[in-house]
Amino acid sequence: MSLEVRDLVIEIEGRRVVDGVSFSVPDGARLGLIGESGSGKSLTALAILGLLPEGASASGSIRWNDRELIGVPDRELATIRGDEIGIVFQEPRTALNPIRTVGRQVAESIRIHNRIPRAEAKARAIQEAARVRLPDPPSIIDRYPHQLSGGQRQRVALAIALAARPRLLIADEPTTALDVTIQAEILELLLSLVSSEGLSLVFITHDLAVLAQVATHAVVLEHGRVVEEGPVEVLLTAPSSPITQGLLRDATATLWRPTGSGEGE
User: Fold this and answer.
1) Which end of the chain has fewer CB atoms surrounding its CB within 10 Å, N or C?
2) Half-sphere exposure of 136 (CA within 13 A, CB side)
3) How far is CA 20 from CA 58, 61, 152, in A?
4) Is the separation of the CB atoms in 28 and 38 below 8 Å?
5) Percent of the chain that is helix, strand, coil (3-state, to 5)
């Protein structure tokens, strides 16, 4: 399954905040959307799933597996969210329900897309917790979000996003709120899951060093417009736009390589 975004325009109360953005994500590809705060990268991701805030509208074309998503009724989009396209947000503390156990939230994600009994869904929730490498899965699923660390909450958010086995994962700055050590662990886990299951990935960030660890191709946004795109390696070594050059100077992530990559630190 592939994603095609063409001439995407997003307006909020008459103000154009995304202007003519185009990119494609072939099956199994890993694309990065990168830019400073306010560049339109997160709004672009929300438009893909029909989750734009009230007062915002999208035009142009967003095609998923040759199916146009712009203008599709929310009920139909709901069948695609999670089941075919999953999303992980930047701050799991706000994305997770504070008054429900994390196991119940993972199980609910499973039951939305699979008509299975609650007991079976709970057993699956334990499996999903183990899949994202949470410690002591049978115990941790009975805890509430505030009882977990930031890294553990992000693992729960990832488990929810992947519970229904989507083919495309959108990760919206999933490591920004984490310290460098935990950030590296989450990035390694994310890339491991994406690679082992052959998922397509849209990874959103403002940090070019982070992007270099998970994506092979990138689109650079500034004020809602594409200013540069190409292989991440080229953006790291020969950026052509001033905004990309600035992002390269500001890159702060500790460089990391997957285990067994054979590359030096």
Assistant:
1) C
2) 5
3) 11, 10, 37
4) no
5) 40, 25, 35
Token pair belonging to 25: 């994500």
Any idea which of 35-44, 104-113, 148-157 has the lowest mean pLDDT?
A: 104-113
Residue count (the chain)? 265
pLDDT one-digit tens code per residue, 90-106:
877 778 999 999 999 99
CA dist 78 → 75, 82, 255, 256 (Å): 5, 8, 37, 36
Contact of 78 with 56, CB cutoff 8 Å: no
Q: What is the pLDDT of residues 65-91, one digit of tens each?
A: 999 999 999 888 988 988 899 999 887
Rounded Cα distance between 239 and 113, Å, is 43
Q: Which residue has the tokens 């002591």?
A: 136
228 to each of 21, 170, 222, 233, 251, how far by Cα in Å? 11, 20, 9, 13, 17
Q: Going from the N-terminus, what domains does the chain have, and what CATH number goes with each?
A: 1-84+167-265 (3.40.50.300), 93-165 (no CATH)
Helix (H) / strand (E) containing 172:
strand 168-172
Q: How far apart are CA 17 and CA 25, in angstroms?
A: 22
Q: At what angle do helices 118-131 and 150-162 cross, to 10 degrees?
A: 120
Helices (H) and strands (E) in the chain, counts: 11, 10
